[in-house]
Amino acid sequence: MSAQIGRSSQFGQSSQIGQISRIPYVDYLVLGPEPHLVAHECAECGARYFDRRNACASCGGTEFAPADLPTTGEVTSFTIVTAAAPGIPVPYAAAVVDCGGTKVAGNIIGTEPDPGHIRLGMRVALSTYVAGTDGKGVDAVNFGFAPLEDGASEGRN
Amino acid sequence: MAEDVWLLGATMTKFGKHRDLDLIDLAAEAALGALRDGEVTMKEMGVLAAGNLLGMGGSVGQLLQKQIGQTGIPVFNVQNACATGATALRTVSMAIKAGEADMGLAVGVEKLAGAGHLGARPRRAEPEEWTRTGRFGAVGDTDGRIGTQGMPGVFAQVGMEYAHRYGGADFELFARISEKNHAHSTLNPLAAYTRPMSAEQIMAEPMIAYPNTRAMCSANCDGAAAAVLVGGTRLRTLSPGQRRRAVKITASVLTSDPWEEACQVLPNVNTLTRNAADQAYEQAGVGPEDLDLVELHDCFATAELVHYDNLRLCEEGGAVDFFASGAPWRDGRLPVNVSGGLQSKGHPISATGIANVWEIAHHLRGEAGDRQIEGARVGLAHVIGLGSACGVHILERAAA
Ligand SMILES: [Zn+2]
């Protein structure tokens, strides 16, 4: 892969060839039967990035390869945002989730955004939802993390 | 041997609303005040560094010169997030150490009153056709939809991360940190807010980003601060009165954050602060146990907790115990933010890094009035801005 990671859809994103009905909200979300996140992993040092990088911020390397992330993880920090800029629906719970050693930013979904329902150290699993639909009827599918019931299946790891 | 750098004169304006003063009026009030305090004039300045983030474009330094003296000296207009004021100081300090000037003026100014914590943005409607933009190839806004990018939420997560790692920190503890700073501000006539608030009142304020309520967030306001720095050789030619009030800047450090796993999803305010503190203690030849007071960057109550640890005021993981011991109260073992801190004194961004140095100097000179920390000899001032940039200055009362 070249130094400049491509800006769009390099991970293969259409759900149906010819007639696309859903697309991922961001490049690093892969849809399909098992939605998951994919990072750009530095070939030199293993540092991982979700955004397009010109070179590795850790070692300066310019070779990156895709690396799939586990779809479950642990909440290592969170906040519940109740006041935000216009246009952002509140309240929402934002969190940092440790997915097998790679930290991911995402919203906690599938539960109430209040401190009674979200706790540090909580186990969560990646979950997707339709964030909006454009004028051509294409759904943009975003991700969040939903609490895992104790003892529930942790999916792929 | 590089030249010693001393603070000769300094001042800050009242923080708060200044409806009748524009940005340059405020900057001029602080700059002229610092010159007067140091008993010098603009003609003696060899360099000017001016910090401003949110107004008038890039030439605040030159606009200021037109009001206080166009002497033809080099001007550095600096911007470095919330470390902008510290960067202006650092710029003048470097010029003196390099031998390019023997005296210089650093100014930081901001007009923010009424700006709110959040800024305003138009809502993005669902488009006719999704298009990918930016480095994430996002088809819509990511702030609020994939985590949070607002300052209150980011710094809330910084504190909650510490709570997760070491335990013992909860909503009430963060409110009690804020209670301390609001109590301290009652003795500071230049603070934007001087009303005491109990932890219970603070917890009952509107929530901004859990666990930070409105009273636990830095107060947006107008303000300016300025300092005249002088090299030791020049200082020794000045009057006994000037030499007596001069305060030695024994460390001036600026760092940025080195890459670490997770810094791409939550700004790491810890490592660069720890690095800056370690470099500053090394430069000054002192340790945290030698400090008599600290002004640290409590942009949110959650931030103050982690910086006790980052500045080595306690042992690693010991910030909750440090606070619970009463140490950072003004009558405690190591007073922190006796000015009221950003939560109560206010946070006119580019002024903050110089205002906290002024606060330290004020105590070291024994001129802090009702809020004087008796016998203060050594103090530390810290700021951090996301990006990230961290400035640490250590000041010492010493004989010139
Ligand atoms: Zn690398």
Element layout with pairings:
The complex is a heterodimer of chains A (157) and B (400).
Chain A: E1 22-24, E2 29-30, E3 36-42, E4 48-49, E5 64-68, E6 72-81, E7 92-99, E8 102-108, E9 123-133, E10 139-147
Parallel strand pairs in A: 1-10
Antiparallel strand pairs in A: 2-3, 3-4, 3-5, 6-7, 6-9, 7-8, 9-10
Chain B: E1 5-12, H1 23-37, E2 47-51, H2 60-68, E3 75-78, H3 84-97, E4 103-110, H4 151-166, H5 171-185, H6 199-204, E5 207-210, E6 212-213, E7 223-231, H7 232-235, H8 240-245, E8 247-256, H9 271-284, E9 293-295, H10 301-310, H11 319-324, H12 341-344, H13 349-364, E10 378-385, E11 389-396
Parallel strand pairs in B: 2-3, 2-4, 9-10
Antiparallel strand pairs in B: 1-7, 1-8, 4-7, 5-6, 8-11, 10-11
Helix pairs in contact in B: 1-2, 3-13, 4-10, 5-10
The structure holds zinc ion.
Order of helices and strands of chain A: EEEEEEEEEE
Low-confidence stretches of chain A: 1-10, 151-157
Q: Give me the oligomer status.
A: heterodimer
Q: Helix fraction of chain B?
A: 25-40%
Sheet with the most strands: spatial strand order of chain B: 3-2-4-7-1-8-11-10-9
